[in-house]
Design a protein that fits this description.
Number of domains: 2
Number of strands: 8
Oligomer: single chain
Number of helices: 14
Largest sheet: 8 strands, mixed
CATH topology of the largest domain: Jelly Rolls
CATH architecture of the largest domain: Sandwich
CATH superfamily of the largest domain: Regulatory protein AraC
Strand content: 15-25%
Length: about 300
């Protein structure tokens, strides 16, 4: 097992990389150069205490983030959040390597609106197949925002500095949301294929003994079976159908429940257990929440 190195502050990063002390203790923009790309990360996992956004070109190798894996490639952005383990393998800098890494501590945004909404940017936990791939134009737009942050860090700080830095970080993230949306729509055929595979997965699950053995299918389980993160699966389904993964699972449960209520003489408890509920009352509660009537009432009415 590799060693775990805790990196709590942005000053710690600068010290480890041999960089000058950061101009601001809670935020830093580090450009790609030999000090960064030639750093020997060793056989260790790094747990950061802050957010990281990277856009690099001309770097080879791979990074493991949590349970996810990124291959560095042209125009790919990498997002990481605090308390997740990262490790690096075979990182090499090619001639003409460019890019940047933006680091910001949760304390920077804690009192701002961004601090309240940061969790909505779910791409911080995406896997490699779900990474953000940006065009040259998009890269230029994002880099311009990062340079604005860098300018704020270089000049004398005043009472406006932190507010403007946070505003540019939020704008950067909002642009990334736009580019992710573009990526979703461009890949619509692939997305539709994932929707089909997701529906088939649920059908196979409920047609097997798995509900009795393992209970209700979870979004995490479905994501693992489809080789993607739960958050990405939910985002994709939401884009394609207007309903997230959990809602799709509930829809599948209710449709099967209706079929068994009207097509069999099974008791309400038997149907609940057969669908994977540990307690029949939980089945009845979900059914009523989704249909407006209890399972027994539905059976009587129809």
């Amino acid at each position: 097992m590799s060693n775990i190195i805790q990196v709590d502050t942005i000053s710690d990063v600068h010290h480890i990389l041999g960089l000058e002390k950061p101009a601001h203790p809670l935020v830093s923009m580090i450009p790609v150069d030999e000090r960064i790309t030639d750093f020997d990360y060793g056989d260790a996992s790094y747990v950061l205490g802050f957010y990281q956004i990277s856009l690099k070109s001309g770097i080879s190798g791979s990074m493991t983030y949590g349970r996810n894996n990124y291959d560095f490639q042209e125009g790919t952005m990498v997002f990481t959040r605090p308390a997740q383990a990262m490790s690096f393998k075979d990182t090499r800098r090619e001639r003409g390597a460019t890019g940047w890494t933006l680091l910001f501590h949760p304390d920077l945004i804690r009192k701002s609106e961004l601090g309240k909404t940061i969790d909505k940017y779910s791409f911080f936990s995406y896997e490699i197949r779900e990474a953000l791939h940006v065009s040259e134009t998009e890269r230029a737009s994002l880099t311009e925002l990062v340079h604005k942050i860098e300018v704020e860090l270089r000049q004398n700080m005043d009472r406006h500095t932190q507010k403007l830095i946070v505003a540019n970080i939020e704008l950067l993230l909002d642009y990334c949301v736009r580019y992710y949306d573009r990526q979703f729509y461009v890949r619509t055929n692939l997305n539709q294929d994932v929707v089909t595979r997701f529906e088939q997965l649920l059908q196979q699950y409920f047609n097997s003994e798995q509900p009795l053995e393992n209970g209700l299918p979870t979004v995490k389980y479905c994501g693992e079976q489809l080789n993607m993160s739960p958050s990405y699966l939910s985002d994709l389904l939401k884009k394609e159908s207007g309903r997230n993964a959990q809602q799709h699972i509930q829809d599948a449960i209710i449709e099967r429940a209706k079929t068994r209520l009207l097509g069999t003489n099974e008791s309400i408890s038997q149907i609940g257990y057969g669908l994977g509920f540990e307690y029949p009352q939980h089945f009845s509660k979900l059914f009523k929440a989704c249909t407006g009537m209890s399972p027994l009432a539905y059976r009587k009415v129809h």
